[in-house]
């Protein structure tokens, strides 16, 4: 650890508390056993943790750019017949 880190650490220990600016939040969710086992298996297959997998999927769901992209795909699919006629397979 750097000297600055040690000073900060000692300060936290001496005062009994620390303020962390970028602190993560804990969320509790209830899952049935079968779903939890599937989730653990998927995370293991991807080489990650259940927490990281849930975080990634949630971030992806909240990504507005992704939503815009997916809506564009739906519009493209609606016009796929035209593209096939116009430009071939």
Layout: helices, strands, pairs:
Layout: H1 3-15, H2 33-46, H3 50-62, H4 64-78, H5 80-87
Search tags:
89 residues; mainly alpha; 71% helix; elongated; disordered N terminus
Instruction: Give the uncertain stretches in residue-range form.
Output: 1-15
Helix percent reads over 70%
Q: What Rg do the Cα atoms give?
A: 23 Å
Assess the beta-strand content as a share of residues. Answer: under 5%
Total strand segments: 0
Largest sheet: none
Distance between the termini: 61 Å
User: Which word captures the global form?
Assistant: elongated
Mean pLDDT: 79
Number of domains: 1
InterPro entries: DNA_partition_ParG, Ribbon_hlx_hlx
Commentary on this structure:
One of its GO terms (biological process) is regulation of DNA-templated transcription. InterPro entries: DNA_partition_ParG (IPR015354), Ribbon_hlx_hlx (IPR010985). It is a single chain. By secondary structure, this protein is mainly α. The protein has one domain. 71% of the residues lie in helices and 0% in strands. It has 5 helices and no strands. The chain has helices spanning 3-15, 33-46, 50-62, 64-78, 80-87. The N and C termini lie far apart (61 Å). 0% of the residues are buried. Mean pLDDT is 79; it is low at 1-15.
């Amino acid at each position: 650890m750097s000297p600055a880190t040690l000073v900060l650490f000692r300060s936290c220990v001496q005062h009994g508390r620390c303020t962390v600016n970028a602190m993560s939040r804990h969320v509790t969710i209830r899952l049935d056993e079968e779903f939890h086992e599937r989730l653990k298996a998927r995370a293991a297959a991807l080489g990650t943790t259940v927490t990281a997998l849930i975080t990634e999927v949630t971030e992806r769901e909240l990504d507005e750019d992704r939503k815009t992209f997916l809506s564009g795909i739906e519009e493209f699919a609606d016009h796929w017949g035209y593209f096939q006629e116009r430009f071939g397979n």
